[in-house]
Every structure is written in structure tokens, then in C-alpha cells.
Amino acid sequence: MSAGALLRTLVGERAVLACLGASAPSAVPAAVAARAMPARCPPAALPIWLLVAGHDVDAPAATRALGVALAPLAAAGLVIERDGMLHATAAVVAIGGGVMVFDRLDATGVDRVPWPDDSSFHLARSLPARPIGAWLDVGTGAAIAPLTTGPRGARVRATDLNLVALARAAEGVALSGRPDVELAAADLFDGAGGGWDLVTFNAPMPADDPHAPATTWHRSPPGAALIERFWDAAADHLAPGGEVIAHTAIAADPWLAHAGRAGTWTIARYTPAAERGFAITRWRPDAAPARELVEVPLGRGRPYVTRSDLG
Question: Are residues 253 and 277 in the same domain?
Fold first, then answer.
């Protein structure tokens, strides 16, 4: 078994959630904060407490538990030995078809690459299940979307302006065995060219002004200028019949941002209309003109928007 395949078993989503008592991947940080590592930790749980929760563990026991996965982790500096214990310098988790690397859960600082929040999983689970072809993931961060979906694209380009995040993405690409994922530093579509069958974007959410009136969000959500710049350019980079999928904040009237744009639009809003709005938007510029707003009720057994919500 390859190191990547073993990591998908040792620190895979199902094992991590069961071990830490988390309801969904984005709930892992809270679950770690609320739970102590057991004094007699089962060997199968040692990789999770080491690589995900960030606890130092006994070196001989962890070495046995990690098996062939230890060598590439150590070679990348993601695991080091000190005073007879193994210490993880980053968080490593396998979700879907890939292995991802983030900064430790206890890391601080503005430049840290944090554990992914709900938005990353809303986007990843809204992607098509079919082979994608040429795929451009804008604002990729740690390359969560391309790595989670596994090798489905004949060509994958993942871009971001954050060089620290791209470094973590490169570690995940290596551990996942995904040479098909091309990483590049770029602002939105810079250097991307055209012909993409799929364009995706998990738009960053700048902090809104806490002193601004509550109605401000509904008129113009944070990051609106960046999001508008993305929508203005996206169709020009698509192949015929291509689609765009993005996670963004939305205004109370989500259609205001798309006035005058042709094609088929589906907006899957997962926050109540009266609250600050977030949604997954699917756009097919070449399709017949149509617009649909889908209200997606979320709960413990349904934590994220999925592809089926988008038609």
C-alpha cells in the first residue's frame, strides 16, 4: 500500500470523525478542543491524535501505527522526533480522494493556513461526479477542492495569491500522489487562458465592519467587489458548454449581482433569507436562460450543500 493510500485509511474522514466525536469535517477543531487524548490510546487512533489533533505521541508506538506513511511525512518535515516523541508540525487529514495539509489547529497568526471551514466543503461537495476535463480552481488555498475530488480532471490548475497556502497545497499534492494538479500564484484568472470545462471559486470572506448597520450585508456583502470581478471574467475563460461553481456571500436579493448575464443560474442558499447570506452558485453561460433559487435546509445529518441541490 502506498503512503497516500495508507494515510487515507489512517486519517481518513470517517476515522477522524469517529475518533474525535465530530459531526462533520469542519467541526473537527471544536471537537479537538472539547476532548482529551485518552491515556491508553488505541494504536489505530494514534495517527489521528498526532496528525489531526496535534498531540505528541510516543515515537515507537506512532512509528508502528504510521508504517510506510511515516517516511514521506518525515521527509517533508511534517513529523519530527524530539525527546522520544513524535511531533506533527502541521495538520494532515485525508478527505475524499486526497490528503490535505494545513497549519496545526493551535497555530496562530494572520498568515496561517487554517483548518477548512464549512465553505470549503460546500464547494467540494457541489462539484460534478463525472470526469471534469480541464478544471481551473481559483483561490484554491490548500487545494481542498482538487484534492478532495480525487483525479477527475484531465488537467487541473489551482491558483492563489497566498504563497503560504500554496506551499501547503504542494505538500498535499505530493502526499496525494497528484502530479496532475498544477499550482500557480495568480490573481483570479491571470495567466489561466481559456478552454476550461469547469471553473470553481471559494471566495474569501473579508471581515465586515462590526459597526456597520445590519442591512449593509444585505445590500452589498463583504468581498462583493472581488466576487463581481470574478463573475465578470469567468465566462470568457470557459470552454463551450462549461460551468462555473462558486461559494460566496450573497445579498438579500441574490440576482442583483447577475443582472444582464445570460445562461442558466442556480443559487443554493443555505442560510435563512433573513440572515447574512451564503450560497453555492452554479452558472452555465451557454445554457438556455433560466434562474432558480434553492433553499437548502442543513442539519446534523446534512451539513453541506451537495451537487443534487444544483440540479
Answer: yes
Q: Name 78's Cβ contacts closer than 8 Å, sequence gap at least 6.
A: 51, 88, 89, 90, 92, 101, 171
Q: Is 264 within a domain?
A: yes
Write out the three cell numbers for 235: 465566462
pTM of the complete model = 0.92
CB 101 within 8 A of CB 149: no
Burial 180-203 (b: 16+ CB within 10 A, else e): ebebeebebbeebeeebbbbbbbb
Q: Which three cell numbers stand for residue 298?
A: 442543513
**Structural domain count of the chain:** 2
CA angle 165, 10, 82 (to 5 degrees): 70
Burial (CB < 10 A; 0-12, 13-18, 19+), residue 270, is buried
φ, ψ of residue 271 in degrees (nearest 5): -110, 145
Task: Specify if 108 maps to a domain.
Answer: no
Query: Quick one: average pLDDT of 247-262?
Result: 92
Residue 95 has pLDDT above 70, yes or no: yes
What span, in angstroms and rounded, lies between the C-alpha atoms of 259 and 251? 13
- Lookup: cell for 93: 487529514
By residue range, what is the domain housing residue 304? 118-310
